[in-house]
Amino acid sequence: MEIWKFLHIVSMFSAVTLLIGGSVFAERLFSTRDAPAIARFHGALKPLETLGIIFIVAGIVFGLVTAIVGPFDLTQTWLIIAYVLVAALFVLGPYESVIYNRIFEAAADGDAAALDAAAADTKRKALVVIDIVLYVAIIFVMVTKPGL
Q: Which of 103, 129, 88 is CA-nearest to residue 45?
């Protein structure tokens, strides 16, 4: 069981690092309105984002294996809370991608007005904060195991 737990933790922390790290860095870059830099960053972000998603899916699989081979019941309260929090992240992901793609397209096109408008969208910043809160909540639930 310990190896599955280790793989779960490493995968999840890798996912959080890549996904939140990329979002936080993007936010700083978007504030510069530097179209060439934003366009180049898009090329670097895409594979890191894909790797982050692979890590989160692997982490979920390793977590389920850990629960199945270990002493956990998959219907325990803390696990159900974690399922809901992770599902929320997966629901928000595609919506965030649409918002980010508007910025990347405007930067690639060199359209300063469209870039300003897309980068000024406060929904994007709110989503980054919500993501961070969700990840912190997941970590809290995994560590404290409420209802156990």
A: 103
